Amino acid sequence: MKISMALLAVLGCSVALANPPGVATAPAKAAASTPAAAPLSKGEIKAMQEFKMLDFNGDGKLSRSEVVLFPRLAAAFDEADTDHDNFVSYAEVQVFAAKYRAERERKRAAQAEVASGNPAAKP
After folding, report:
1. Quick one: pLDDT band at residue 35, thresholds 50, 70, 90?
2. Helix/strand/coil (H, E, C) string of the chain?
3. Strands 87-89 and 61-63: what pairing?
């Protein structure tokens, strides 16, 4: 299902946003004195849009009821909900995505070692 794969990107892609949903921005004067934040990547923009799409009530966090129609997201909910408040904030999604990406890269590296003929390496 195309939409469920796109929504999985919310939890599976790397996102590093300067101003996540629900977080107030600094006053304009303070912002003017600090260097500009790096522009968002296409993946970060897409992840933010998908997060907002799932956030049906617009409260800046995902509840179990908002992800219930997506079994893989629902299954990852407890792991992503690091503060155990029964909501997944955008910051928690960022942490989960980094962990997910690191694990995926570790598995790929192990598989590459096995493929290269290193018998000591295991995926």
Report:
1. low
2. CHHHHHHHHHHHCCCCCCCCCCCCCCCHHHHHHCCCCCCCCHHHHHHHHHHHHHCCCCCCEEEHHHHCCCHHHHHHHHHHCCCCCCEEEHHHHHHHHHHHHHHHHHHHHHHHHHHCCCCCCCC
3. antiparallel
CB neighbour class for 108 (10 Å; exposed up to 12, middle 13-18, buried from 19): exposed
Domains along the sequence of the chain with CATH: 2-19+41-115 (1.10.238)
pLDDT score recorded for residue 40: 72
Side chain identity at residue 92, one-letter code: E
Lowest-confidence region among 28-37, 39-48, 71-80: 28-37
Report pTM. 0.59
Amino acid at 78: D
